[in-house]
Design goal:
Layout: H1 14-17, H2 20-26, H3 28-31, H4 46-49, E1 51-52, H5 53-66, H6 72-79, H7 83-99, E2 103-105, H8 111-114, H9 123-127, E3 129-132, H10 134-150, E4 160-166, E5 176-177, H11 188-199, E6 213-214, E7 217-221, E8 223-230, H12 243-260, E9 265-271, E10 275-278, H13 295-307, E11 313-320, E12 326-328, E13 334-336, H14 343-358, E14 362-367, H15 372-385, E15 389-391, H16 397-407
Parallel strand pairs: 8-9, 8-11, 11-14, 14-15
Antiparallel strand pairs: 1-3, 2-3, 4-7, 5-6, 9-10, 12-13
Length: 414
């Protein structure tokens, strides 16, 4: 009896065929949101900043229906789904994200219990919270870095170089006569040439001390950086979200340092009514709040962090959009004045800038606004610390910051 094989067109299963990286990319704005949509809430509390699974479900559904991450066939397949089928697909994607370690959920995610008979998400599942993992942060940081450097064109990577030369393993400069204490990174050709010029070509060739030539390499310095992020309320005011791009740049800078400059260090300081050091792994959860700008306290904390570092270069990178408007008094109270340049606040802040100068700490400021008060203050900071000030926007911040960081390798370290 003849056997027949029936072939049919392969229809991919969206939940298993979809790229998790593409999905994470589509969700990046949601995962890194900074409170722009809830400007009048108390959003700085980290517990309140945690998103629920219900929020994630809605974000995934919006990404499936509105983003460009799907090919034509899969898009048509999703558009023809019923509401219940779309809910099931979202639950399967959440399960994959958890299984592949892109998110952590505060209770085991069970798609079978996620919905009731009526198709509604249970209260327990809707209130369950999640947080993105280091794996997700690493991917988002890499993506931000790739996008930022892509807009700059070709960039050469390496460790921080200066124009000072020293003998070492990597040869990139001209050769020099060997001196006591130099690394014996011999330039064989130049050494033999010196001996031949002195004695002529014959064997055995007598090589003397003065014949020795060694390669020079660029002196490579290490750098300790503290990134100071302004998370006062003005960062999301006036119809523009300035904090989310700043968070993305911080993640990109972290990825750049970890992968290309392993000898460098990066610390993160948030400054608002006061200041606090935050692990970079927590950056995605941070939101702005109804706070003033205590620049002086941020500089104080940044200096304490840099004092612990044993690096050739120490710098503070400050991202802000407002003039200093708060000050921590000796008794711990916070003095606030958002109107104009308060003489007390400015004078005390500049005293802290002066301490940075004496400690050899460079301050580079990236300004996301150009009002007169901020410009006047930053010009004074730049003049005192011999740093740089950049007038930029949330859209060009990353280009300026990364180029400035990488260009440090051409600076002389004394």
């Amino acid at each position: 009896m003849a056997k027949f094989i029936r072939y049919q067109k392969y229809v991919p299963e969206p939940a298993s065929e979809m790229s998790m990286e593409d999905l994470l990319n589509a969700l990046s704005d949601y995962l890194l949101q900074s409170g722009f949509q809830q400007q009048y809430s108390d959003f700085y509390d980290l517990k309140d900043a945690e998103q629920t699974l219900e929020d994630l479900r809605q974000a995934i559904a919006d990404a499936l229906l509105n983003s460009d991450m799907l090919d034509q066939q899969m898009r048509e397949q999703i558009e023809n789904m019923s509401g219940e089928q779309l809910e099931q697909l979202v639950e399967q994607l959440i399960q994959r994200m958890e299984q592949e370690n892109y998110i952590n959920v505060d209770q085991p995610h069970d798609p079978a219990r996620a919905s009731t008979a009526g198709g509604q998400v249970s209260d327990a599942q809707s209130q369950a919270r999640f947080e993105i993992t280091d794996k997700s942060l690493d991917f988002l940081g890499f993506k931000a870095l790739r996008d930022l450097l892509g807009s700059l064109g070709k960039s050469s990577f390496g460790r921080h170089d200066t124009r000072d030369t020293a003998t070492g393993i990597e040869a990139s400069g001209a050769t020099k006569t060997y001196e006591f204490g130099d690394t014996m990174n011999l330039d064989i050709t130049a050494t033999l040439s010196n001996a031949i010029q002195r004695e002529g070509l014959h064997l055995p060739l007598n090589i003397e001390y003065n014949d020795l030539q060694v390669h020079q390499c660029e002196y490579q310095s290490s750098c300790a950086t503290v990134l100071m992020l302004d998370c006062s309320h003005s960062m999301i005011l006036y119809g523009e979200d300035r904090f989310t791009p700043a968070k993305k740049v911080a993640m990109a800078l972290s990825h750049l340092i970890r992968t290309q400059y392993p000898g460098d260090s990066l610390s993160l300081v948030l400054f608002h009514d006061s200041a606090e050091e935050l692990p970079l792994s927590q950056l995605a959860r941070v939101k702005v709040g109804p706070y003033y700008t205590n620049t002086r306290e941020g500089l104080r904390l940044a200096q304490r962090i840099l004092q612990r570092q044993r690096k050739d270069m120490k710098q503070i990178v400050m991202i802000t959009d407002g003039k200093p408007s708060a000050l921590t008094l000796e008794d711990g109270r916070i003095y606030k004045n958002a109107f104009g340049l308060d003489p007390l606040v400015v004078s005390e802040t500049l005293k802290e800038v002066s301490k940075c100068k004496r400690a050899g700490v460079l301050i580079n400021t990236f300004m996301l606004a150009s009002d007169y008060g901020l410009v006047q203050f930053v010009q004074k900071v730049t003049e005192m610390c011999r740093g740089k000030a950049y007038f930029t926007t949330p859209y060009t911040l990353g280009q300026y910051l990364l180029m400035d960081y990488m260009s440090r390798k051409t600076k002389t370290v004394h």
